[in-house]
Amino acid sequence: MPVAGILTGKTAIITGGTTGIGRAICLEYLRQGATVTVNHLGLDKDQPHLDSLIAEAEAIGKADANAGRLYHQAGDVRDPETGAKLVSLAVEKSSSGRLDICVSNAGICTFADFLTLSPDLLSNTVRTNLDGAFYVTQAAARQMALSQSPPGGSIIGISSISALVGGGGQTHYTPTKAGVLSLMQSTAVALGKHGIRCNALLPGTIKTQLNEEDLDRPEKRKYMEERIPLGRTGAPGDLAGPAVFLASDELSGYVTGAQLLVDGGLFVNLQ
């Protein structure tokens, strides 16, 4: 007999939820019983990712009657209205009329030389990674604090180990991830009185579509694996369990303003 999951009855939103880390978190939330609404850009090139996610969600539902249901909505997180619309759809589809979990995950990373880095690349990276995180966090917090009784919820910002260390080819990217970490710390203070917990997940070297080409180079992969104490680069699924932990009031109800490294030990081995 299927057993109810840790997040049964909960409602979650995830930005950038059709690929990489966001997708892995989405699928685990569904397995744990949450109703999940994911945001995506809605581009033609992204349709296969959405189609395959829907198929996986349906398979999970067929295997477990207690699994959650998946919904999706297109929108650019750089637009403040995208977060508001995502929250509205999630609440509409929720059996409780609540929003319990927000995962701000959408982000971009293009390696570039600092001396030739274009203003357009800088602006696009900041607006997507930091502005987008702010807008969806604000939209989720407004729902959690002002539009449901009792108030409360869990907001998770996907930051990066890059928030803590420098990167010569990431001078436009690392400040945005430091910003996401700082955003979670500050909102933890601002929203604690509403029962809203805000925490950051800091992935290490996780193989996703953003860095797949780089990590497919044998010399780069060998270099990274030798620096990571656990001896391997991460997979998106490595973030799913920690994301469930931070989403669950039962497991992490007294955790807010925290940063959780999920890096195989890379940070403590940096020399």
UniProtKB/TrEMBL annotation:
Gene3D superfamilies: NAD(P)-binding Rossmann-like Domain
Keyword NADP: yes
Alphabetized UniProt keyword annotations: NADP, Oxidoreductase, Rhamnose metabolism
Taxonomy, superkingdom: Eukaryota
Molecular function GO labels: oxidoreductase activity, acting on the CH-OH group of donors, NAD or NADP as acceptor; quinone binding
Coiled coil residues, start to end: none
The name this protein goes by in its record: L-rhamnose-1-dehydrogenase-like protein
Organism: Hapsidospora chrysogenum (strain ATCC 11550 / CBS 779.69 / DSM 880 / IAM 14645 / JCM 23072 / IMI 49137) (Acremonium chrysogenum)
